[in-house]
Structures are given as C-alpha cells and as structure tokens.
Amino acid sequence: MKILVCISNVPDTTTKIKFVNDNKTFDTAGVQWIINPWDELALTRALDIKDAQPGIIESITVANVGAADTEPTIRKALAIGADKAIRVNAEPKDSFFIATQLAEVVKKENYDIILCGIESCDGNGSSVGGMLSEVLNMPSVSAVSFLDIEAGKIKLKREIDGGQEVVTTQTPFIAIVQKGICKEPRIPSMRGIMGARTKPLQVVEPVAAEPLVEFVNYEYPKPKAACKKIDPENVKELVNLLHNEAKLI
Amino acid sequence: MNFEFTEEQKMIQQAAKDFAERELLPGVIERDAKSEFPKEQMKKLAELGFLGMMTDPKYGGGGMDTISYVLAMEEISKHDSAAAVVMSVCNSLVNWGLETFGTEEQKQKYLVPLAKGEKIGAFLLSEPEAGSDATSQRTTAEDKGDYYLINGTKNWITNANSASTYIVIAQTHPEKKHKGINAIIVDKNTPGITLGPHEDKMGMRSSDTHSVMFNDVKVPKANRIGEDGFGFSFAMKTLDGGRIGIASQAMGIASGALERAIKYSKERKAFGTEICNHQAVAFKLADMAVKVENARNLCLKSAWMKDKHLNYGIASAYAKQYAADIAMEVTTEAVQIHGGYGYVKEYHVERLMREAKLTQIYEGTSEVQKIVISRSLLKD
C-alpha cells in the first residue's frame, strides 16, 4: 500500500500572532514554521503502521502546497521518516485551491490511503480533507482517532457524540484525522536528519484553480475582562453579578 | 562571516529542544533529589543518535558538525545538565578520541557501539592527587610484554557505572614523566575493577559519578591508543574538544536560567506592576542576556574553528572559562530575581545554580583555562 500524507506549513503554536497592512495580512516576521500538528499526528500514525507492518506499506509520501520557503518543514517530515515529498509550488490561497492542487497529486499516483489533519492551526478551516474527497469523488472518513490495517483490511474509529464509531472502508480513501490517532509526534533522529538531505523532494507546478474565498481582514479576539474580586462573605453580590452581569445563571 | 544556521542545524536544535522539554524536564527535580541516573531518558537520547552525533556515519555516528553539537548541548543543558554531561563525555572525549587516534580495529570494536548509542563511554583521567595537574598520574599501566597491568585509583569519573567502555590514562614509564603516560581502552567488566560509592554531589546529582579502583587489571596491548607514551598528549588534545562540550553545557545552564528569569519577571508582581518593569530587574536581565549571548558566540566560534580544522584549543579555553564563569553569575542572578521562590526547587533556578558551579571546576577549572589562555598570550 502507498500512503500520502498532506501537510501544511503553519506558524509554531506559541507564535504571537500579529497582523499588518490594516489587519489584512498575517505578519510572518520572526515566525517559526512547523508541520501542522494534526498533519504531524497523521504522519506519525502512517510511520507507526509502516514500522509495525513493514511488508504492507510500500511508501509514505508527504505533499504540501506552498512556496519554496516551506521546504524546511517538508524536510522535517522526511527526517521523521517519510520516504519522499511533493511540493506544489504555489501559495496556498484557500481550502478549495489547496484541495484542487492536492487532488492533482493524488491522481498522478495510486495512493491507497490519503491522510489529512482535521484542521490546520493557522486557518482552522477544517475543510481541505472534505473538499479533496469531493474533488476526487473518493470516500472519506472524518474525525478519525484510530487507524490500522488488520489482515489487509482497513479499520477506523471516529469520534461521535458520546462514543466512537468503528468503520471499515475500501481503498483508496481519505482519512481526516484528529487527536488520539497516535501517541505523540516523533523527534527526528540524527540519522533521519542526515538522510532527509538525500530523500526525493519533487516540485510540481500548480494547476489553474480560482480561490473561492477572499480574506477581507482579521480581528484579534477581545481582551479578557478584568477579574472582579468579591468578598467571600458577600454571596448575594456574587449571585447578582453572575445573574445580571455575566448572565451565567 | 555568516551567522546563519543551516536548516539541518536548526532541525537538530529543535529536536534537542523537543526532547529536553518532553523527556528530560518532567522528573528532573525528582531525579536530582534522589541522585537518580536518567537511564530511560538516556536510552531514548541514544536511540535518536545524540550520543554519537559527531562521529562519522561509517562508524555508526550521525556525521553532524560541532556547531550542531553546541546547539544541541545548549537545549539539553537548559533542562537537565546530568543528561548533557553524558552527551558531552561520549561525544567530545570518548568517541572523538577513538575516532581521531584509534586503530581501525579499535574503532570497529569500541567506537561503533558507542557511536550508535548502544554503549556509553567514560574518560578516566582525574585522580585523588591529580586534578588540574594531570601530569602527576599515579595510576600505573605496567608493560608486561603482551599486556598492561593497571593499578591505581581514578576519581570523579562521570558515567563510571553506566559506561561499558573506559579510556584510562595511566603511567607506564614514570622516568619519562608525562611522556611516559598511555591512554588505554578498558572494558568495564575486566576483573580487578571496582567502583567506589556514588558521589553525593552538590549539583548534577543524577550524573553517575564514582571513583574507580584498578587492582591488577590485565588489558591487551592492542588496546593502547597511539604510540607508547602518547597518552598525555591524547588527553590534552581530547580535552581541547571536551571544553567545547562543557562550555556549551555551561552556556545552556545560563541560557535556561535567563529564560526562566524572563518568564518569572513577567508574571510576578510587586509594587503594583510586573517586576520586569522595575529597572533593577530589567537591567539584571539585560546583563544576563549579554553574557549568555557572548558565551554562545564563543562556543560557536570554537566549534566553527574545529569544523574548519583550525587550531581551536585556545578558542575552546576562552569559551569554557567565560561560559562557566558567567553561568555562575547568571544563575545566581536568576535566583535573585525569583526571590524566595528561586531558593526552592520548584522553579529550577537553584538547581541550575548548583549545576553551574561544577562547570567552573570540571574538564579544566576556570583557573586552568586562564593558564592556557595567558600562556598563549605571552609566548614568543
């Protein structure tokens, strides 16, 4: 089987978010870029399956839609253990644009399992995996927190209200994965980092696709209100504020 | 001049940071209190290749440069110096010494498992009466024809218990003084070797430090490194590189203390504002940051010189002396900024202060570094 893991290049989750150009553009100055954490979980699970069943998984490829400056992130995916990488040479404009580009990558090779993170921690669109499924007319399973291959059959679990749903599917299919899919992301080894230099990273040009979303501007979350302290003896005032001001009770 | 790191160097730095925060930081206070060696953590660090990161891949190492090593040492030392010193001894002293001066047979037999992280090494130079004056070796390696017979005691040996492979510095020809000293590879399991109790240290308490006694220990002649009498020269050359590791460790301790002091000063309030807004604290932070940056640059410069095959012995003495001394100053100030909280274990800075002290003492005291530096200034 061949696995494709779609990875986004996103700001480190501890980045102090700032906008410039009248709050229309994210300020990338000084930002450290990482593999989108949900995509990294997907990649980790793919590697875990390959390690456990080496004869079954032929290769793990990562695909990214991004300009050349995303290559350090792609190299990290290779250092962790992906066999090869494909970069679609284009700025990721919106989810539809990205899904269209990834669909072209999928069409060129017969991948059996395509993994996407449930969302990216920058745009939080939660839409690329679903759109990719639609563009390719390929089955997809969302909110996947367990994925394994048992006796050649795909076994998935997905989170639903109050429990889990156990699912099986034909290949090829898309799994949109979330937390729980693996224990924790891997730290690249020295050998992995050294080996990443020479693993293939293919750059392909994008296909024509018009983005469907126009980003007007960004707004910061409202600052947290100041904490009000109430005398522990004054329960009446506490109830009053919770009822009339916070409107919680 | 190019102050930019390569993508690979940045990746190694990040990998070390992730490892230190994920695997070493949880439990470091408890390990320090119990003097407990980070066995599981070292196994994982070894599997990732950090213990042989600079050794040539043909001997099972990572093939990384010394710059990467400095970056990794900083990140590990921010959180667990006891782990960092294992990494330093393995990389800088044992592996480098074997790779540079060992025979092909010695490399295949001893270096390969060390570089792969399957085994840990130790470097046995110090003695009860030979610390800074390393020429006064009392441990003897008597030439018995086809083997050496080793007798004597070595002190303050890092990794003494966890190591499988020792490099022992011992005197074979006392009449030749330091030119009669040999460096010999010894399997720890060889009959006649006993360990003293675990040293109850002020800092780096979970590092595995013992004295090692040799009583008629037979070692094949083939285990000698280099020509007969090369041992002292071997030790000095190896320690030139070792200084880069310990300098980086000291710099990492200081860097970890600075990061914690900045964080705390932005959270703790006094007189109606965060304490970082008081100039007395802000200026301390500025002084600490300049010192850490200077130490980092000295470490990186000596590493760069080593990678370029330039003579880095003096540069590494600058780095070791400065980084160790400022580590003491910076950690002391970090405790001061934390006030009473800095004096208890929860905030880590008291531990960093105890750890910093050792960096001024081992692998050449700050005073020995000044001897090295001043002699280089004064020679004709």
Short description, anyone?
The complex is a heterodimer of chains A (249) and B (380). Chain A is 27% helix and 27% strand.
Written description of the protein model:
- Chain A is an alpha/beta fold.
- Chain A has helices at 37-52, 71-80, 95-108, 128-136, 190-196, 235-245; strands at residues 2-6, 9-11, 19-20, 25-26, 33-35, 59-65, 84-88, 113-117, 140-150, 153-160, 163-169, 173-177, 201-204.
- In chain A, strands 11-10-9-12-8-1-6-7-13 form a 9-stranded mixed β-sheet, with helices on both faces. A two-stranded antiparallel sheet of chain A has the order 2-5. In chain A, strands 3-4 form a two-stranded antiparallel sheet.
- In chain A, strand 9 (140-150) and strand 10 form a beta hairpin.
- In chain A, 36% of the residues are buried.
- The longest helix of chain B has 37 residues, at 231-267.
- The radius of gyration of chain B is 21 Å and the shape is globular.
- Chain B starts with 6 loop residues before the first helix and ends with a helix.
- Chain B has 3 domains: 7-120, Butyryl-Coa Dehydrogenase, subunit A, domain 1 (Orthogonal Bundle), CATH 1.10.540; 122-230, Butyryl-CoA Dehydrogenase, subunit A, domain 2; 233-378, Up-down Bundle (Butyryl-CoA Dehydrogenase, subunit A, domain 3), CATH 1.20.140.
- The interface between A and B is medium-sized, with 15 and 21 residues.
List the helices and strands and how they pair.
The complex is a heterodimer of chains A (249) and B (380).
Chain A lengths: L1 E5 L2 E3 L7 E2 L4 E2 L6 E3 L1 H16 L6 E7 L5 H10 L3 E5 L6 H14 L4 E5 L10 H9 L3 E11 L2 E8 L2 E7 L3 E5 L12 H7 L4 E4 L30 H11 L4
Parallel strand pairs in A: 1-6, 1-8, 6-7, 7-13, 8-12, 9-12
Antiparallel strand pairs in A: 2-5, 3-4, 9-10, 10-11
Chain B lengths: L6 H18 L3 H7 L4 H9 L18 H14 L1 H21 L2 H12 L5 E4 L15 E4 L3 E12 L6 E7 L9 E7 L5 E3 L13 E12 L3 E2 L5 H37 L1 E2 L2 E2 L4 H29 L5 H26 L10 H11 L6 H13 L2
Parallel strand pairs in B: 1-4
Antiparallel strand pairs in B: 2-3, 3-7, 4-5, 5-8, 6-7, 9-10
